[in-house]
């Protein structure tokens, strides 16, 4: 597959700069803009620890925008409703099948809506839990127990789910962990350093995996 390299190479969709990440701007009323310091902090961590040169100012991209194809990885979060129109379903499916990667971080309250909308995009696929032996947990940083727990909500275990299309993982969904909370400025959630570090390392693994597979 073409080098999806948000990390090291030029994205094969034809973008002139393959080192950008986008935040997915969706409809339905959910707060797609949640955790505003999360992605900039993750980018800074990746640039320092993975020797990357990712743009420090992530852009917001609508689901139906043709510009989504300029980004090797898009990030999505929120607490509430998500609605993909027919046009958005077609565009997002094309983007993902073409080599794009979507990371969804449930910020508590997103789950029922995103599961419904993903079914529109890939009705033939089921979200499956990703085992701790999968490469996404074993990149530069190792997570032998799988998804780390960052933020507690319902006393459920942290899980990572994925959609696989023709053997390729193209959607990664962190559930009951709230990774992006751990990427935010320390003052926001007052997470201790070790918790924030775990979250940032797992985020860096997602970036590394998405751009080398």
TrEMBL record:
Pfam families linked to this entry: DUF4159
InterPro entries per UniProt: DUF4159
Domain of life: Bacteria
Domain annotation DUF4159: ranges: 21-211
Organism from which the protein derives: Polaribacter irgensii 23-P
Stated name of the protein: DUF4159 domain-containing protein
């Amino acid at each position: 597959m073409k080098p999806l390299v948000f990390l090291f190479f030029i994205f094969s969709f034809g973008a002139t700069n393959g080192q950008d990440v986008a935040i997915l701007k969706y409809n339905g009323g959910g707060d797609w803009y949640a955790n505003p310091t999360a992605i900039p902090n993750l980018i800074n961590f990746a640039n320092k620890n993975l020797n990357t040169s990712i743009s420090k100012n992530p852009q917001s991209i609508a689901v139906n925008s043709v510009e989504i194809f300029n980004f090797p990885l898009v990030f999505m979060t929120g607490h509430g409703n998500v609605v993909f129109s027919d046009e958005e379903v077609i565009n997002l499916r094309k983007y993902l099948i073409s080599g794009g990667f979507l990371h969804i971080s449930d910020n508590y309250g997103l789950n029922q809506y995103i599961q419904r909308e993903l079914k529109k995009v890939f009705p033939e696929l089921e979200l499956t839990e990703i085992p701790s032996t999968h490469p996404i947990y074993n990149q530069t940083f190792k997570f032998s127990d799988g998804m780390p727990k960052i933020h507690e909500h319902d006393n459920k275990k942290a899980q990572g789910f994925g959609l696989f299309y023709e053997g390729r993982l193209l959607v990664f969904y962190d559930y009951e962990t709230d990774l992006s909370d751990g990427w935010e400025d320390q003052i926001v959630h007052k997470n201790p350093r070790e918790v924030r570090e775990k979250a940032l390392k797992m985020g860096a693994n997602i970036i590394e995996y998405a751009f080398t597979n």
